[in-house]
């Protein structure tokens, strides 16, 4: 699927994607990447430093982007620190802990609203979030 996607967005048919083309791919996937996200992605995967990504680099880019769910490395590291601070021994964060995290960041929501938000990203339906689900919530 990624190879077809790469070829479809390689508008110049030169075998590489530039930053604008990569941004269009990510938009199609439902993300609205900031310039800092694109820069972080390119710093991480543009092995030859030419400012474009070839197919091999593109596959790395997609893996990297999916791993951090659209956050820059620094943002993901900060969120991981917050997650670890609140996670229970099973490696998940409860709805109440999420409520506390959101309050600490200045966002106030009702318990019902938090439960609705958690339900949207709680893939395994445990009513608590692992780190990947937590990233999606944030």
Plain-language structure description:
It is a single chain. The chain is mainly alpha-helical and about 140 residues long. Helix content is about 60%, strand content about 5%. The chain is built from eight helices and four strands. Strands 1-2 form a two-stranded antiparallel sheet. A two-stranded antiparallel ribbon has the order 3-4. Helix 7 (about 110-120) crosses helix 8 (about 130-135). About 25% of the residues are buried. The mean pLDDT is about 85.
Helix/strand-derived category reads mainly alpha
Could you estimate the helical fraction of the residues in percent? 55-70%
User: What are the low-pLDDT stretches, counting only 5+ consecutive residues below 50?
Assistant: none
What is the beta-strand fraction?
A: 5-15%
Question: Nearest-angstrom radius of gyration?
Answer: 17 Å
Strand order of the largest sheet: 1-2
Count the strands?
Answer: 4
How much is the average pLDDT?
87
Shape: elongated
Largest sheet: 2 strands, antiparallel
**Ends apart, CA distance between termini:** 27 Å
Taken in chain order, the helices and strands follow as HEHHEHHEHHEH
SS field, number of helical segments: 8
